[in-house]
Amino acid sequence: VSQSVPAGVTIIPIDNLPISSNADSESSDADSTSSDDEGIQA
Description:
Elements: H1 4-9, H2 11-41
């Protein structure tokens, strides 16, 4: 796994995961933050 990961898996996950993860994380955080803020304000 280590050999495969550094070789190509690292490049693919970095391009796929970070973008998707960041997008999901940002969306989740934005939603969570908005929900929390709205919830607190409400």
